Amino acid sequence: YTAEKYASDQSRLADAGVRVTVCQLTAGHEWTPEFSRLAGDFLAHVK
After folding, report:
1. Angle (nearest 5°) at CA 21 between 20 and 25
2. What are the angstrom distances between the C-alpha of 41 and each of 9, 10, 18, 35, 36?
3. Domain map of the chain by residue range?
4. DSSP 43
5. pTM of the full predicted structure?
6. d(CA 38, CA 46)
């Protein structure tokens, strides 16, 4: 996931009115404890 693609995706989502929270992890394709915590935080705020 390149920096250019990241910037493009963020711009596109902002243009569409989507609120984005960025979480950068060094987990690759692994489900880490940090990812679990962040996913749990996100799900706790989804109504």
Report:
1. 130
2. 22, 21, 18, 10, 9
3. 21-47
4. H
5. 0.62
6. 13
